Amino acid sequence: MQLRGLHVRRGSTEVFTGLDLDIPRGQITGLLGPSGCGKTTLMRSIVGVQKVAAGTVTVLGEPAGSRSLRRRVAYDTQAASVYGDLTIHQNLRYFARLIGAPRSDVDRVLEHVGLVGQRHQTIDSLSGGQESRVSLAVAMLGAPEVIVLDEPTVGLDPLLRSELWEVFRGLADAGATLLVSSHVMDEALRCDRLVLLRAGRIIADTTPPGLLADTGTADPDAAFLALIERAA
């Protein structure tokens, strides 16, 4: 993925003014930073659903949002994108049919997100964390080459977060490109590559070891604070 001169305005706010970024294939890139720094806007731009004032966004060699990318790029938003009056299994079967994924994919993704035992529950009966996991399962249907996940572990307990990061690692090892946003800095150490944002600017584009070495800190929270002080 390649972004050049990205300029995005939301209302009267300039979110990005000439942002440049390259995201390598087959890796987990963590997009980190505090709420309001531009993470979601950047992800929306990559998926092709964000109005862009200027610049280009190229995904898998095509302009972001191109029709040819619809089955190659998956997007899991912060808001659950499933139907509340249907069961988990019904939702997954419906979305699998929409994208032409095999029915066997439903069982595969249910296993990955740990919801096999709840497959016949309606979405409205689930906890917020379970509902988020169903949305993640929908994004994993088929064989997307790029998976964009906007804070997929928010509200989940530490054990489930760890299990989902193992799923993310497996997807990347199988060749998928993952872009995962978070404001939980300890998740930075699980990524191959890190892009840290603050107020619409990239203040670091590095690796987990590089981040700690560059700032002389022992944990990503301290590293991020050090980068903010340096940028100021």
Produce a short descriptive summary.
By secondary structure, this protein is α/β, with parallel strands linked by helices.
Could you list some keywords that capture this structure?
7 helices; 6-stranded mixed beta sheet; 4-stranded antiparallel beta sheet; 10 strands; 232 residues; alpha/beta
- The span between the termini is 29 Å
Q: Residue-averaged pLDDT, rounded?
A: 91
Radius of gyration: 18 Å
Strand content of the residues, in percent?
25-35%
What structural class do the secondary elements suggest? alpha/beta
If strands are numbered along the chain, what order do they take across the biggest sheet?
Answer: 6-7-8-3-9-10
**Low-pLDDT residue intervals, each spanning 5 or more residues:** none
| Strands, total number | 10
Using the alpha-carbon principal axes, give the shape: globular
Helix content: 25-40%
Instruction: Let me know the largest β-sheet.
Output: 6 strands, mixed
| Number of continuous helical runs | 7
* Order of secondary-structure elements: EEEHEEEHHHEHEEEHH
Write the layout of secondary structure elements.
Blueprint: E1 2-10, E2 13-22, E3 28-32, H1 39-47, E4 54-59, E5 62-63, E6 73-76, H2 88-99, H3 104-113, H4 128-140, E7 146-150, H5 158-173, E8 177-182, E9 193-198, E10 201-206, H6 208-215, H7 220-231
Helix pairs in contact: 3-4, 6-7
Plain-language structure description:
The protein has 232 residues and is an alpha/beta fold. It has a domain at 80-143. 34% of the residues lie in helices and 25% in strands. The protein has helices at 39-47, 88-99, 104-113, 128-140, 158-173, 208-215, 220-231, and strands at 2-10, 13-22, 28-32, 54-59, 62-63, 73-76, 146-150, 177-182, 193-198, 201-206. The strands form two sheets. It has a six-stranded mixed sheet, with helices on both faces. It has a four-stranded antiparallel sheet with strand order 2-1-4-5, with helices on one face. 40% of the residues are buried. The mean pLDDT is 91.
